[in-house]
What does this fold into?
Amino acid sequence: MRFNKRNFNNKKDKPKKDEGMTVTVRNNDVNGALRVLKKKLMKDGFFQQLRERSYFVSKGEKKRRAKAAGKRRFERKMEKRELELGY
It folds into this structure.
């Protein structure tokens, strides 16, 4: 039996590593890099997920919260429509 060995000398054949969130520090500006990292994490929803997982929420509570959020979105949409179109 003959096994197929892959040759990884070519860059496009190399398996890609999962790098995750990366930020480069330029000119020894660590605070700037932290600010960029926090923005990326916020955009990704990391902090929201951390807040949600800090304690248990039952399935019924999740449904009630989702329904309330939908109502708020709809009411905001209707208010905006009222202002723009008048009805």
The longest helix spans residues 59-85. The mean pLDDT is 86.
